[in-house]
Amino acid sequence: xxxxxxxxxxxxxxxxxxxxxxxxxxxxxxxxxxxxxxxxxxxxxxxxxxxxxxxxxxxxxxxxxxxxxxxxxxxxxxxxxxxxxxxxxxxxxxxxxxxxxxxxxxxxxxxxxxxxxxxxxxxxxxxxxxxxxxxxxxxxxxxxxxxxxxxxxxxxxxxxxxxxxxxxxxxxxxxxxxxxxxxxxxxxxxxxxxxxxxxxxxxxxxxxxxxxxxxxxxxxxxxxxxxxxxxxxxxxxxxxxxxxxxxxxxxxxxxxxxxxxxxxxxxxxxxxxxxxxxxxxxxxxxxxxxxxxxxxxxxxxxxxxxxxxxxxxxxxxxxxxxxxxxxxxxxxxxxxxxxxxxxxxxxxxxxxxxxxxxxxxxxxxxxxxxxxxxxxxxxxxxxxxxx
Length: 387
Ligand code: NDP
Ligand code: MG
Hints:
Blueprint (H helix, E strand, L loop, with lengths): L5 E6 L4 H11 L5 E8 L3 H11 L3 E4 L2 H4 L12 E4 L1 H9 L5 E4 L7 H9 L3 E4 L2 H18 L2 E4 L2 H10 L7 E8 L17 H4 L9 H9 L1 H14 L6 E5 L5 E7 L4 E5 L5 H9 L31 H11 L3 H17 L8 H11 L8 H20 L1
Parallel strand pairs: 1-2, 1-5, 2-3, 3-4, 5-6, 6-7, 8-9
Antiparallel strand pairs: 8-10, 10-11
Helix pairs in contact: 1-11, 4-5, 5-6, 6-10, 6-13, 10-12, 13-14, 13-15, 14-15
Magnesium ion (MG) binds next to helix 7.
């Protein structure tokens, strides 16, 4: 008899990670089942996904948006749950095997935390949770026996490469970065960047927030902090290299000098599939390297004048405590202000730096303190915008 399917709660199903996750589930030949879907604003997309995947629950995290959901379009046996608490309820439900954390930003924290409190497995795309509360999440994992499987492509690559040696044999984690759309733009032109230009990423098709983060390189800063807590490796042992082709997703250098990399075309369906089917590898839907074509790979050290965000990521990873939460919240708010036309592209990183510097660093914060600081940092960005 065939094994029963793994039940996946796809949180943030209407986003870029969510849609890629549903592709993986659709291609799994019944091995994976979307038991829950969640959306915040895109009600028509949610209804269409529910029709196709027939989940037990759909969650609408924004109660106002829920009023726009046409329930007649849903399968008759699909239950609608409303509000942010419903994300927590689903994440903790006994019938959920894996929570796919695909919500963007700080809003993903509570559901991931809730799943880990139940000792569940979380396939984690929502890096902001680790940036904000990575140290506390690591403690929770140790206490409750849950599991975090990285979906972020760099961290999935590191996770795979790390299996080539022991933890104390790791010399360095090397995160690759495409460099985004402005890698070669004359520095003085950065000031004039428009929202449309910043949203045009050369190698990845992603949601708006992470696309802006990739253009400022704040994405790599957040990923340094994410790697520090996911793998328990100190900040000093995490490096960044520019690799414009986005084929090598990251590398682990061991003490003997051997460097192990994971390579594949830029397609998020592979890391998602690896996490959802873990510990198995399956044929799946992701694109493959064509070895019949020439393949040229470049690696360059990052230009720190162009991308000062990297230094902020290193600083937050070293400082630990409250630094990650402040950096993350300031960045989320600054990116939103840029998208709203209230802040220049080149002001995003300076705003984050000044707010990080201004905050009273605390080495051992509670989750409640981090949530409070998250609010404070957002207010500071509003003051920066008005100034
Ligand atoms: P998108 O903006 O495409 O999707 C975000 C999802 O979160 C949507 O389903 C959205 O619902 C939902 N959402 C938005 N705000 C809230 C909220 N306040 N409460 C609950 N749900 C909310 O983002 P991405 O898919 O690009 O990114 C998701 C996460 O994955 C991010 O943390 C990102 O850093 C990470 N990631 C993404 C990659 C990618 O390739 N896209 C690669 C690596 C990591 P709705 O659309 O209905 O409003
Ligand atoms: Mg990444």
